[in-house]
Amino acid sequence: MRLLDLSSPIDAGFWEPDPVVHTVMSAAEGARHMASEMKEHFDLDFPVETLPGGEFLTNDTVTLTTHTGTHVDAPSHYGTAAHGQARHIDQMPLEWFHRPALVVDVRDVGTGTISAERLKEGFDRIGRTPEELDIVILHTGASAYVGTPRYFTEFAGLDRSGITYLLDLGVRVIGTDAFSLDAPFTHIIDAYRRTGDRDVLWPAHFAGREREYCQIERLAHLDELPAPHGFHLTCFPVKLAGGGAGWARAVAMIED
């Protein structure tokens, strides 16, 4: 079994619409912090020079959104559900996140939308149509731009026919190497201004209000997979209570 990391990092050096703030407490600062906490909470005096080199443990404080880096969107992220209370990320079945997966190469689409017909062409090309609960991944090529503003404006996302087709097949986790499973915000808003058609407004996300499913966004390294199917994807989301999304370490499990 070979493991291939399909995750993009959380990196405070990347360009993000909502910047990541990453503060590191050094080991020396950790010693002073620990001594202060012991005094405040337990009235214990502890001289930091007792520790080797006057050091204790480092610590990281990170401020970020749940949609930074590779993450899984929960149904509650999509808004008010037609079927009642939408489930949060900590309530989703683990079985959804360790499944056979297949990749559809849609890099030829460029910036725009992916229809059901385009997906069918892709499945015909690789010789496999998704079965119920398979994970489908869109290879848009956007991961080449991760860490830059282009990552948020140059990729393809599903249109209404595309998302409906996958959900009809029984797919419940859909992935992409792009920022969003929908087309870029700029493309969507421009299309709406031109057409006045409300169906172009975030169809992939809004479909989750009617039918329960999850997205895994901001995948990476899809071009390193040896084949477009024949592997399992493991992408368990962090168990964030009441969260609309959870970060995930996405890993392809490949039989050699």
Automatic annotation (TrEMBL):
<dbReference type="InterPro" id="IPR037175">
    <property type="entry name" value="KFase_sf"/>
</dbReference>
<dbReference type="InterPro" id="IPR007325">
    <property type="entry name" value="KFase/CYL"/>
</dbReference>
<dbReference type="GO" id="GO:0016787">
    <property type="term" value="F:hydrolase activity"/>
</dbReference>
<protein>
    <submittedName>
        <fullName>Cyclase family protein</fullName>
        <ecNumber>3.5.-.-</ecNumber>
    </submittedName>
</protein>
<keyword id="KW-0378">Hydrolase</keyword>
<dbReference type="Pfam" id="PF04199">
    <property type="entry name" value="Cyclase"/>
</dbReference>
